Amino acid sequence: MMNSLYPIKFRPVLKETLWGGSALRDRFGKDSRPETAVGESWEINGMNGESSVVANGFLKGNSLEEIIEIYMGDLVGDAVYEKFGTEFPLLIKFIDARATLSIQVHPDDKLATERHHAWGKTEMWYIIDNEPSAIIYTGFRRKIKKEEYLHFLESKQLESIINATPVRPGDSFFIPAGMVHAIGAGVLLTEIQQTSDVTYRIYDWDRVDASGKPREMHTVLALDAINFDFDFTGLLRADPEVNRTVELASCRYFHTSLLQVDRPVIKDYSLTDSFIIYICTESMVVIDCLDHREELKAGETILIPASADSVAIIPQGKATLLEVFIPKNDN
């Protein structure tokens, strides 16, 4: 008989980047060398060859792909397993942008499948903290023709036709595949995305790498991926309601809600048929389900198996969580 499942934590994988900083180490205690610029912490990831490794309980040391193969629908949900098999459908990250990231775009499922045998990338961001002047770049300021876009790109004026939105903690941005976007300098956020690492870099602010060379651009590839009709910012502003679940974004790929708690809350997932992910962005909670308790601190992420019908969330102070799952009707 297999041992029963429980709330699962994974070892974060830290990614050094040209634009990263020290916030993931200083604020959340992510284990990195003091001299390194860490831009991303991959919290839960099911991509082939990079699958997250369990950090707690009897499954410790096993990869996410391996435990999906064993527990199947009990872990991820029957409908999710039927569609994705052992490939986990989401990638969860924390991102620290000390400098502005490149302007980029992601292909949709159809284009990514044709070109890369991969999923496309629709994603969302939740702003945890930011410098006072920080902005997010998303979408064109108006619908634009491809020829116009190329003119602005070639004349290094692309920034002038892209929305630049000042941000504050608690803001969210929904970024469908095809929307041009970039994270501005001085932003700390969590990212929820499809399991894909296909990115077309459009413009990198004329930066060079450590060897003095500019990074590769994907100008031609990006042309077929960009939706030139996306003239909105994707900004989502929702006021938290203490001890109530507030929806932030919902699409066929993920459903994300905000949950701020200052007393114990019990969540019923008996009809969800999906794993649940909690991302803690402030304070700490104890997660109690499947006869197991696990602490979840700010900067940590946990996977609740689909076999859990209910979860008790017990805050230690006033805590903020994001709740993520795969919507049932779109599998």
Features:
331 residues, mainly beta, Jelly Rolls, 2 domains, seven-stranded antiparallel sheet, five-stranded antiparallel sheet, 7 helices
Describe this entry's structure for a reader.
This protein is mainly beta and 331 residues long. It has two domains: 13-236, Jelly Rolls (Sandwich), CATH 2.60.120; 245-330, Jelly Rolls. It is 14% helix and 36% strand. It has helices at residues 23-26, 64-71, 73-76, 78-84, 109-116, 146-154, 219-225; strands spanning 13-21, 38-44, 90-97, 103-105, 123-130, 135-140, 162-166, 172-175, 181-183, 187-194, 200-203, 235-236, 245-250, 255-261, 265-268, 276-282, 284-289, 292-297, 301-304, 310-315, 319-325. A seven-stranded antiparallel β-sheet has the order 1-2-3-10-5-8-12. The chain is globular, with a radius of gyration of 20 Å. The mean pLDDT is 95.
Please give a quick description of this structure.
The chain is mainly β. It has helices at residues 23-26, 64-71, 73-76, 78-84, 109-116, 146-154, 219-225; strands at 13-21, 38-44, 90-97, 103-105, 123-130, 135-140, 162-166, 172-175, 181-183, 187-194, 200-203, 235-236, 245-250, 255-261, 265-268, 276-282, 284-289, 292-297, 301-304, 310-315, 319-325.
